[in-house]
Amino acid sequence: MIRAHSRSPFPRRSFHYYNQILQSRTLSPDNYTFSFMVRSCTQISESPEIGFPIHGAIIKYGFESDPHVQSGLINMYSELGLLGSCLSIYSSSSLFEPDLVSQTAMVSACAKSGEVDIARRLFDKMLVRDPIAWTAMISGYAQSGRSRDALRLFRLMLSEHVKVNEGTLVSVLSACSHLGALDQGRWVHIYMERNNVRMTVTLGTALVDMYSKCGNMSKAVEVFSKMREKNVYTWSSLMNGLAMNGSGIECLEMFDLMKKKGVQPNDVTFVSVLRGCSVAGLVEEGVKHFESMSNFYGLEPRQEHYGCVVDLYGRAGCLEDALNFIQNMPVKPHAAAWGALLNACNIHGNLELSELASRKLVELEWKNDGAYVNLSNIYAESSEWVKVSNVRKLMKNAGVKKIPGCSVVEVNGEDHEFLAGHKTHPRYGEIEVMLGEISRRLRLSGYVPNTSPVSFDMEGEEEEDFMGRHREA
Predict the structure, then answer these.
(1) What's the rounded mean pLDDT across residues 40-51?
(2) 292, 317 contact by CB (below 8 A)
(3) What angle do CA 106, 107, 112 make, to 5 degrees?
(4) Are 260 and 295 in contact (CB under 8 A)?
(5) Contact status, residue 174 vs residue 207, Cβ threshold 8 Å
């Protein structure tokens, strides 16, 4: 009964039967009891402290060395975000030789907590790795923004003929989306078709998201149309892709179709809707959709929604409206809102508001190198080199260093990474020659470089060369 309820939507009912065991004169909890009780505690997210007395009982009854109980405890503390407790259990004196279950649980806990380097060290020490361990490691890389590592590990997984599951493919598609690696994402799609992998809602949504973020909207629409089952996230992914790729009107048409199909929009949907309105320049309609979130759908706007409305006003050139909206927000203005205003000011050339937005960003994100660089560039455009110098001093005093811009280009399924100012690419010499040739032809065609964003006090040709070779978006 405890096991049944631990796997049901009502895990709290497990405690009724657990208490009956404790009150019995003839029964005593065993390792199976505690394995399923820990599982129940893990599922009761609204009361995370409920698992602590169960852990105490496990020690009291002497089952702390049972591998299944231990792996359950590791999973429970991982869900609570208590990685230190996970590591303590894993490295306890009774676990000199942890089994596969405990090893996999620990790799998953570290990966989920963002400690992917610790997870990888544990993963590499495993003599046997099951698909769950591989998937946990790949997922950890993808969620930590280390998408290239995720794809490398996936290739290694395939080379070792490990069975790929749905979770693996979703994480790999997420990594492809992050990198814009269309060829590799397409390969995953072909792999699914050749191996008769069932197109679940989760996989289909991941494919739609991948094709959208890689710019292939026709393929995203094709996958979407062929899906037998779709949920609100599937619809939202397609709408977000349409907005992201400049098809704002089509995004709003898809929103109308979604509502006709009886699918209830959520907060993710409205991010896509507001982006669609922003791209299409539909300010009034966007504001109405924003207001409908709380008035009609009972959804509380999040920071991202406020940022979208600022972007909506800003793209349309309504900078004062954008500023008023920020100043009258019911929550404290956040970095995303000021960042949206800054971007709009840069587009429309409003230096006064750009300076205000940049200063607010520096105040909110004093460790964010981009905020300082934006402010420095604004002063550089006005040739205010003393203020540029002051910004650099602020950065130095705050211990902030400029992280070089990075671009990744996929060619024939292979990723090529370029860092601003670095010459580490193996074909850099050829690239340098080609850049020179492109620059020469542009000048012959009458092109004059825009050197205004340069944040250094340089002379003419020096500025042009810097902008031609080291421009960061």
Answers:
(1) 84
(2) no
(3) 100
(4) no
(5) no
Name 417's bridge partners.
408
User: pLDDT averaged over the chain?
Assistant: 86
39 in Cβ contact with 69 (< 8 Å): no
At residue 234, the 3 state secondary structure works out as helix
| Cα dihedral 137, 141, 142, 144 in deg (nearest 10) | 130
CA angle 105, 111, 116 (to 5 degrees): 130
Render pLDDT for 80-96 as a digit per residue (tens, 0 to 9): 888 988 888 888 745 45
- Which pLDDT tens digit goes with each residue over 353-403? 888 888 888 888 777 777 778 777 777 777 788 888 887 887 787 777 766
pLDDT at 188: 93
Cα 81 from Cα 109, distance rounded (Å): 9
How confident is the model at residue 452, as a pLDDT? 52
- The owner of tokens 């811009």 is 405
- Using CB atoms within 10 A of its CB, is residue 413 exposed (0-12), middle (13-18) or buried (19+)? exposed
Taking CA 42 as the corner, what is the angle to CA 304 and CA 229, rounded to the nearest 5 degrees?
55
First to last CA, the chain: 59
Count CA atoms closer than 13 A to 446's CA, side-chain side: 0
Name the H helices within 316-427.
Answer: 319-327, 335-348, 351-364, 369-381, 385-398
Mean pLDDT of all residues in 427-441: 86
Could you tell me if 147 and 115 are in contact, meaning their C-beta atoms sit under 8 angstroms apart?
no
Q: Do β-strands 406-411 and 414-419 pair in parallel, antiparallel, or remain unpaired?
A: antiparallel
Residue 446 CB neighbour total at 10 angstroms = 6
Cα distance between residue 368 and residue 454, in whole Å: 19
Task: Work out the angle at residue 179's Cα, subtended by the Cα atoms of residues 270 and 235, and round it to the nearest 5 degrees.
Answer: 25
Written as one letter, the residue type at 314 is: G
Side chain identity at residue 233, one-letter code: Y
For the chain, give percent helix, strand, coil, nearest 5: 70, 5, 30
Containing H/E element for 310?
helix 303-315
**Residue 136, Cβ neighbours under 10 Å: how many?**
26
Instruction: Calculate mean pLDDT across residues 322-342.
Output: 90
Token pair recorded at residue 111: 């990966």
Phi, psi for 106 (deg, rounded to 5):
-70, -40
In the numeric block, which tokens belong to residue 340?
């949206």
Amino acid at 86: C
